[in-house]
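Researcher: Let's continue the batch. This sequence belongs to Rhodanese-related sulfurtransferase, and it's 101 residues. Same format as the previous ones, please.
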Amino acid sequence: MFFNRIPSIKTADLENQLSERPQILDVREPHEFKAGHIPSAKNVPLRKISTYTPKGKVYVICQSGMRSKKAAKLLKSQGYEVVNVRGGMSAWTGNVRGGKA
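Model: Same format as before. Here are the structure tokens for Rhodanese-related sulfurtransferase:
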């Protein structure tokens, strides 16, 4: 189980799937999320990830890809289908919503 690879996706590939309304989980801190996030993303900070229950496949994103990878590993170990978004919001070129979470 320790060596289970976490599937990953490029930000551009995730952007191309937005019309399918994928479940996107942003694990950054609330102030980071409010500064700019993918419009359909739900914010659950990494420190609270153990309280989150995804419904179906979930794409996990953070600022650079490190926190999302940790969150994805934890969720996968609990049996959920997860995909880490490589590069995180630093690599995101799609629409961003700022302001209210």
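Researcher: Any comment?
Model: The domain at 8-91 is CATH 3.40.250.10 (Oxidized Rhodanese; domain 1).
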